[in-house]
């Protein structure tokens, strides 16, 4: 089996896109996983993915509105997802996120 970097660009792009779509399905299937928990553990969340999509579009000279990217990532309008699935952050989560951000800033 060939190494990933030996695959042609089209195949690599297709595999990357498939993995991204799988990540979005996984997040959609696990709506109980809160964005703040993702930020604490992995330093990214659904909003980050949305912003990265907007940036990727801009890098290619395309226009993609943040709300459109969010709807794609969340599988519904962001306001609807927040109302139905986003829990209020508890003090422990906020403290953990603050500690994570402080650690990240000290490493820069």
Automatic annotation (TrEMBL):
It comes from the Bacteria. InterPro entries: SMc04008-like_domain, SMc04008-like_sf. Gene3D superfamilies: SMc04008-like. Residues 33-98 form the SMc04008-like domain. This is SMc04008-like domain-containing protein.
């Amino acid at each position: 089996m060939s190494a990933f970097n030996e695959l042609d660009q089209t195949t690599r792009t297709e595999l990357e896109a498939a993995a991204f779509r799988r990540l979005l399905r996984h997040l959609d299937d696990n709506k109980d996983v809160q964005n703040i928990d993702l930020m604490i553990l992995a330093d990214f969340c659904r909003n980050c993915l949305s912003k990265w999509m907007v940036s990727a579009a801009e890098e290619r000279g395309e226009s993609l509105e943040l709300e459109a990217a969010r709807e794609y990532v969340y599988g519904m309008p962001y306001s609807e997802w927040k109302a139905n699935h986003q829990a209020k952050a508890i003090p422990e989560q906020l403290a953990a996120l603050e500690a994570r951000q402080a650690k990240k800033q000290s490493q820069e």
